[in-house]
Design a protein that fits this description.
Helices cover 21% and strands 26% of the residues. By secondary structure, it is of the alpha/beta class. Strands 1, 2, 3, 4, 8, 9, 10 and 11 form an eight-stranded mixed sheet that branches.
């Protein structure tokens, strides 16, 4: 298997070839399972006029949100945008084009793109602004709208473990969007918590086969919590009531 080693050691190598105007598909859900270091590298490169496809756009000052600070994102295709004040400001000011897409539809757009399927019909969004201007067809007496698949110049994803050949395993919530995104990029870059040797991953547990992956880099992750919620304990409740 000589020559199958896809590990790179610098973020410059990992994102080599990214230029202005490209489409980047990013995995993750909220701030969970996002490729933090790869996003930071895009920030460092200053690449502009990007179309970014991701479930959301991070938060102010973290995740994809840092790319808004220098207006690097021209268009955002996403599902949930409620945690980012700068995103809202740029949208209302006309600085940022936004295409809101239902989460399941967005995931299927990525999956279909990776599978070579150009479009598919879904009932989601029919009769709402999401379906305006889209082809409608009836199946079993129910209307469906035609949604086009998504592919990108780059896909950036975060894995729990990856081997040197690019086989990836995602953990828990990081399985949202990362597996689909990984298949839909012309160049797919994986940022992994741990890189292992080929054969160490259980074949039946691999989520993304290495055939989809071009580069792998070991990252360091802050894993910031988007919204910290602390459960009330009995002692806390008693103390407050006594006051």
């Amino acid at each position: 298997m000589s020559g199958f080693d896809k590990v790179v050691t610098t973020y410059q190598e990992a994102m080599e070839g990214l230029t202005d105007g490209m489409t980047v598909i990013a995995g993750g859900f909220g701030l969970c399972g996002i490729p933090e270091g790869l996003i930071a590298q895009v920030k460092t490169m200053g690449t502009k006029d990007l179309t970014v496809v991701s479930n959301n756009c991070g938060v102010d000052g973290f995740g994809l949100g840092i790319l808004l600070e220098d207006n690097q994102i021209k268009k955002m295709v996403s599902s949930y945008v409620g945690e980012n004040a700068l995103f809202e400001k740029q949208l209302l000011n006309g600085e940022l084009e936004v295409e809101l897409t239902p989460q399941g539809t967005l995931a299927e757009k990525m999956r279909a793109g990776g599978a070579g399927i150009p479009a598919f019909y879904t009932a989601t969004g029919y009769g709402t602004p999401v379906g305006e201007g889209k082809e409608v067809k009836t199946f079993n007496d129910r209307p469906y709208i035609l949604e086009e698949a998504i592919t990108g110049d780059f896909a950036i994803v975060k894995a729990w473990k990856a081997d040197r050949y690019g086989n990836c395993v995602y953990r828990h919530t990081a399985q949202n969007f990362n597996p689909m995104a990984a298949t839909a990029g012309a160049i797919t870059v994986v940022e992994a918590e741990e890189i292992v040797e080929p054969g160490e991953l259980n074949p039946s547990e691999i989520h993304t086969p290495g055939i989809y992956v071009n580069r792998v880099i070991k990252g360091k992750f802050e894993k910031r919590i988007e919204r910290k919620v602390v459960a009330k304990t009995a002692s806390n409740t008693t103390a407050k009531e006594s006051q």
